[in-house]
Amino acid sequence: MKINLIVVGKLKEKFLVDGVAEYLKRLKKFATVEVREVPECRTVDDEGRKILSLVQKDSWLCVLDVAGEALTSEDFAKKIAALNLSGVSNLTFVIGGAFGLSDELRQAASYRLSLSEMTFTHQMARLILVEQIYRAFKINRHEPYHW
Question: How far apart are CA 33 and CA 24, in angstroms?
C-alpha cells in the first residue's frame, strides 16, 4: 500500500518532528509513505490548487476537515482495510493550513475525516494522523499496540 501525506507548512517543534519521524519509521513495515509539504499560501484557494496538483489520479483522497466524519480508531482501521480489499492501494491524506481547506479541495475528496470535535493545530494533526494510520495497521493485523 502507498500512503501519501500532503500537508501545508513545515513542522517547527522538535517534539512533533521526532514524533512524526517515529511513526513514519514504524509505518515502513506496512506501507510506503511519502510526505509532501506545501508552503502556506495567501489564500486557501491557492493552497487547494497546489495540493490538488500533487494528488495522483488513481489515489483515494481523504481530507482532514472539521466538518468531516469522526471515526473511532477501529472504524478508521476498517475503512483502510475495506479500501485495500476493494483494490485501492494508493491513499492520500491532506492536512490543510491554519485557515482550512478550499471548497474545490473538499469537493475533490473521496472522504472527509475529522480527527475530533476539538481543534488541533495543523502541525499537531500531522502527528495524530500518522499515529492513527499506524494504529489502523496494527488493529487490522491483530497485533498488540491498540489495547
Answer: 7
